[in-house]
Amino acid sequence: MSITIVGLGPGNGRTLTLEAWQLLSAAETVYLRTARHPAVADLPAGVNLITFDEVYDTAVSFEAVYTQIVDTLLAHGRDQDILYAVPGHPFVGESTVTRLAAAAAEQGIITRIVPGLSFVEPSLTAVQVDALDGLQIFDAIELAHFHYPPLNPDVPVLLGQVYSRMLASELKMVLTVVYPPQHPVHLIHAAGTAGEQVESIPLYAIDHSPHIDHLSSLYVPALPVASSLMSLAETVAHLRSPEGCPWDQEQTPQSMRTGFLEEACEVLDALDADDVGGLCEELGDLLYHVLMQVQMAAEVEDFALTDVIAGIETKLKRRHPHVWGDWEVADSDHVVRNWEMLKKQEKAEKPASALDGVPVSLPALARSQKIQHKAAQVGFDWPDISGVYAKLEEELAELKAAADADQRAEELGDLLFVIVNLARWLAVDAESCLREATGKFSCRFQLTEQLARQRGLHMPDMSLAELDRLWEEVKGGNQ
Questions:
Q1: Within 10 Å of residue 356's Cβ, how many Cβ atoms?
Q2: Cys-Cys with 327: which of 69, 248, 297, 321 at CB 3.0–4.6 Å?
Q3: Would residue 29 count as lying in a domain?
Q4: Residue 339: inside a domain, yes or no?
Q5: How many CB atoms lie within 10 A of CB 438?
């Protein structure tokens, strides 16, 4: 017994292949995934047509539809040769075909595929695009389920099965994660038929079209400027190549270290200033440094960009079993505890310290706070905050009693360490706290300088009391 699967093409009977027509003409019964297709009206007369449209009307999901169709076809295919016809090409956007072919192979049922013209070719003809210049093809129904779609914005996209305005609305929300709302796109209706229509509209308007139906597709051109991670990786690789830049070619992982830290600090500056434009630019600079490190590692075959991405992708999903698993959590604190437990399990084969994993290169305040947090997690902590305040007074007294410069430096370090511990107890980030205090001082000092210049005063010649009066004046202005 066998199942022959025939592609009906994208339009009416004129797009049927000769082989498909001959098979359809010789068949007594043809199973149709749907009768809602232009070619159905042109099928040979006298053929008994059985459609699965009722399944679509009664099933609760597409998954249920596909399962019922495949089960029905397999049941008939075990006892007799049957012919199953689908719109377009059997292996372009036809989930029932891939499932049916796999299930039939498992059950020893022979399947034969008769190709048909898909929606792709007439759609590309409608917008006059060559697929070999680069093209991504997706099922709009599947793409609408993503939070961040797996699209390369440097390559055009063709989306099939944009069958309703509701789906178009969901699709718009997903696509505007990658493309600006004003990005020009083309809605293609009934491609390859006499009723073919192309609407050239901005992305934000795709769900406004009154022409959307089961024969609608969406063509999304590439963004005008290279915007993908792949393009940036290629740019960095080119800079490192013999045809690239002498400076980039000379760099080593260690020589880029200082720049990496500086760019990270500039990201923090943009965050502190709430500078959205600056943050966008500084994150780009930091990303360049990331890709430079990856490129240099790839050149000596240590690892590749795909290894970096696969590593963090796998780790994130492994460390979030409450999202990609069946774990339950009560709150974010529970999430953090799970994270640390899973992290320890992953490193269980190595003799480990509770303080492992805190980078030495972190800013001193941030590193101190992380180390004290880790120590507290294993019980090495004061029972309550009163112990921290008492320790603070003790360290301050020891600093005042220090006999020489070396002792003063040591006691000052101890005092700072306790202050960081106090910040942890108060649920304050010590690094950010000091950055904000320093930024506030800088702003007020510059305003004090400005006020002195306006009054013709020279600050080095002023007494401390005079300077303090200017400072209080600025401070009184809530600066």
A1: 12
A2: 321
A3: yes
A4: no
A5: 11
